[in-house]
Amino acid sequence: ATADDWRMLAHTGTPVVLCPRSNSNLGLALPDIETALASGVQLAIGTDGSASSGTLDPRDDVRFLFDRYPSSAVRKALIRAAITGSAQVLRLSPDALEPGTRWQPSFVWF
After folding, report:
1. CA 75, CA 13: separation in Å to the nearest integer?
2. What is the 3-state secondary structure (H, E, C) of the chain?
């Protein structure tokens, strides 16, 4: 995505779910996370499936990105994307993860 693409996504409030291991296994480039963050786009972390990424655990996608983006600012943003961003994309409140909250099947994505 170009810088203009990221700005358009941010302007329209369109969240972007990153599935970096799957994209890498398909020969696609890594996302330009720094430009995405600078544009203000909402990021989330997901997984396309075990066939293209090895596991269904989005934390593995975060680890994959951590290995490629050493910046502490980017790493903080990735953790926020995995928790808050993913909750927002799934239309869940991050507050739903408070201690004592009743388990919901959608929590499996965290």
Report:
1. 22
2. CCHHHHHHHHHHCCCEEECHHHHHHCCCCCCCHHHHHHHCCCEEECCCCHHHHCCCCHHHHHHHHHHHCCCHHHHHHHHHHHHHHHHHHCCCCHHHHCCCCCCCHHHHHC
Which residues does 14 contact at the CB level (< 8 Å), separation at least 6? 41, 42
User: At which residue do the structure tokens 């201690």 appear?
Assistant: 99
| Single-letter code of the amino acid located at 103 | W
Q: Is the pTM of this model over 0.90?
A: no
| Residue range 56-89, pLDDT digits in tens | 888 899 999 999 999 999 999 998 898 888 888 8
